[in-house]
Every structure is written in structure tokens, then in C-alpha cells.
């Protein structure tokens, strides 16, 4: 039976020895104070309660999976395992097991993103910022990013769109007051004021995603109706009355010397000029086209 291919590429496994190589020979003990978070870390917030729980586990069982680090001058930068490093500090460890590897800045960023996605450690905004950073700093296309992390291009595009929100709604997403599903529904609204108003209502009333979609749909439909009504009203304001139409018809008839009919509704219509012979047709054309 063939092995199922991973949806997230090689991930951190690309940095860990494989085959017959003895993993224990690759692990080194590093002073915890000589280690720093990596610059490519997409994760910005760490749940202190979960860090404390992991610290307790580390006290009892140690660190099962070593950190992946890269040497930069006199310090080691974390490629993968920042949460374990933070928990180890809380647990009071002086040294931590790690595997030292070298990688390009792009590889470091890709691997840090993959690890966090695999562990579901990123909130939607952090994920969106990481995608955006990879694309802008390393000129990675959405297609290439899709291959790297094993997600569809549409899923990536929808995640990046979350960066269109202002800080207030971003905080709601980060704090899990609304989900990415709620946010995508709210994005259908054009103005920032409307988005914030709806987001606050969703939080206040505890709407689920389907209810949020219905609310946004209702707002958009009302705006469409209001716009159509406004356009109809404007058209009606610009429409001649029957008395005015009759007056214009008589005026044109006097000027052109032939029967003229005018039809109009809601500011749109047509003017029909009649003629009864080729000569009269040429006369009217000549009159209407002269400077």
C-alpha cells in the first residue's frame, strides 16, 4: 500500500535527519539563554495558560521533540519550537535539546509557517500576515504558496482578504469573538462603518456564520432597493409632464414644418419626426445637420 502524500509538503521533517541517521547524534543541548525567537515567526500571540500547561508537562516528561534552530553569531534563532522554548523557560530549564540546521530566510519563513499551520497555532490574522509577508518579501505567488502549505489558492486569497479589516475587527478575530467565516461574510460590505457596525452586532447577539450571512445579505438588498428607488426618483424628476411634452411637440412642429411626436417615461424616450417625400426628408436632414 502506498503512503498518502502529506498536504503540507515536507514541513519540519525536511530539517530533521531521516533514514538510518541516528537522531540522538544530531541533538545538542543549548543554554536556554542563548536561544532567541526567529524573525520569521508568524505567530504573534501565545496563550499563557497553554504555555503553563506545556511547562508542567515538560517538568514531568521533559521536551520530547527538540527545537530546530539556526546559528546567528553568538545566538541560536528558533526555526521551529518557540512555544516549547517559552514553556521550558517557565518550567525553569537551563538547557534545551535542539537540532542545528542552516536554511535561507525564505526556507525559514516557509517552515515556520508550515509548522504553525500543522499545529493549528496561528489565528487567522497571523496566518494572513504570514501569507502576505511570504508573497511580498520573497515574491512567492499564490500558486507556489498553495503548493508549500497544501491549501487551495482560493483559501489563501480569502485568508489574505482578512487584512482589509481595520484594527477593531482584526482584534475581534484574534480574540475569537468572531470567526474567519463571520469575517468573510462581513467583507461583502463596502464601507468600514458598516463592517464595524455589523461585527459589533454579531458579537453582541452571538450570531452564527449563517445568521451573519443573512444579515449582510439583507443590508445589501436594502441598499440596492434604496439605490434603485433613488434612481427612479431622479428619473421622475427629470421627466416632462404631458402638458410640457405637448408644448415641445408643437414647438418642434413649428420649427421643422412637419409633424413631430415625442414619447417619454422616467427621463428616457424618443422623438419621431415625420416626412412625406424624399425632398422633405432631404430638407429635414439638411436643416438638422447644418452648423
Largest sheet, order of strands side by side?
A: 1-5-3-4-2
- Radius of gyration equals 34 Å
Number of strands: 7
Number of helices: 13
The main pleated sheet reads as: 5 strands, mixed
Helix content: 40-55%
Low-confidence residue ranges = 1-25
* Principal-axis shape: elongated
Structure description:
The structure is a single chain. The chain is of the alpha/beta class. About 55% of the residues lie in helices and about 15% in strands. The protein has 13 helices and seven strands. It has a five-stranded mixed beta sheet. A two-stranded antiparallel ribbon has the order 6-7. Strand 6 and strand 7 (about 270-275) form a beta hairpin. Helix 2 packs across helix 3, helix 4 (about 105-120) runs antiparallel to helix 5 (about 125-135) and helix 9 (about 180-185) runs parallel beside helix 11 (about 210-235). The longest helix is centred in the last third of the chain and has 29 residues, at about 210-235. It starts with about 20 loop residues before the first helix and ends with a helix. The model is unreliable at about 1-25 (pLDDT under 50).
List the helices and strands and how they pair.
Blueprint: H1 23-26, E1 27-31, E2 35-36, H2 48-61, E3 67-72, E4 75-80, H3 82-91, E5 95-100, H4 105-118, H5 124-137, H6 142-149, H7 153-160, H8 167-174, H9 180-186, H10 192-205, H11 209-237, H12 242-256, E6 260-265, E7 268-273, H13 278-289
Parallel strand pairs: 2-4, 3-5
Antiparallel strand pairs: 1-5, 3-4, 6-7
Helix pairs in contact: 2-3, 4-5, 9-11
Amino acid at each position: 500500500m502506498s503512503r498518502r502524500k502529506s498536504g503540507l509538503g515536507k514541513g519540519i521533517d525536511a530539517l530533521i535527519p531521516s533514514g538510518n541517521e541516528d537522531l540522538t547524534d544530531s541533538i545538542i543541548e543549548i543554554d536556554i539563554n542563548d536561544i532567541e525567537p526567529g524573525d520569521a515567526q508568524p505567530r504573534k500571540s501565545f496563550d499563557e495558560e497553554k504555555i503553563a500547561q506545556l511547562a508542567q508537562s515538560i517538568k514531568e516528561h521533559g521536551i520530547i521533540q527538540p527545537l530546530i534552530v539556526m546559528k546567528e553569531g553568538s545566538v541560536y534563532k528558533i526555526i521551529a519550537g518557540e512555544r516549547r522554548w517559552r514553556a521550558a523557560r517557565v518550567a525553569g530549564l537551563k538547557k534545551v535539546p535542539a537540532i542545528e540546521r542552516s536554511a535561507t530566510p525564505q526556507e525559514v519563513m516557509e517552515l515556520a509557517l508550515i509548522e504553525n499551520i500543522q499545529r493549528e497555532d496561528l489565528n487567522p490574522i497571523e496566518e494572513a500576515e504570514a501569507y502576505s509577508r511570504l508573497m511580498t518579501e520573497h515574491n512567492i505567488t499564490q500558486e507556489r504558496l498553495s503548493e508549500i502549505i497544501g491549501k487551495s489558492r482560493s483559501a489563501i486569497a480569502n485568508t489574505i482578504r482578512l487584512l482589509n479589516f481595520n484594527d477593531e475587527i482584526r482584534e475581534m478575530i484574534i480574540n475569537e469573538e468572531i470567526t474567519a467565516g463571520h469575517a468573510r461574510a462581513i467583507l461583502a460590505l463596502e464601507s468600514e462603518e458598516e463592517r464595524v457596525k455589523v461585527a459589533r452586532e454579531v458579537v453582541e447577539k452571538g450570531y452564527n456564520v449563517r445568521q451573519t450571512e443573512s444579515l449582510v445579505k439583507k443590508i445589501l438588498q436594502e441598499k440596492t432597493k434604496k439605490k434603485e428607488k433613488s434612481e427612479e426618483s431622479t428619473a421622475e424628476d427629470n421627466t416632462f409632464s404631458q402638458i410640457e411634452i405637448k408644448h415641445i411637440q408643437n414647438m418642434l412642429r413649428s420649427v421643422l414644418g412637419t409633424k413631430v411626436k415625442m414619447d417619454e417615461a422616467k427621463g428616457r424616450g424618443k422623438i419621431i419626426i415625420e416626412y412625406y417625400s424624399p425632398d422633405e426628408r432631404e430638407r429635414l436632414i439638411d436643416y438638422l445637420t447644418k452648423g
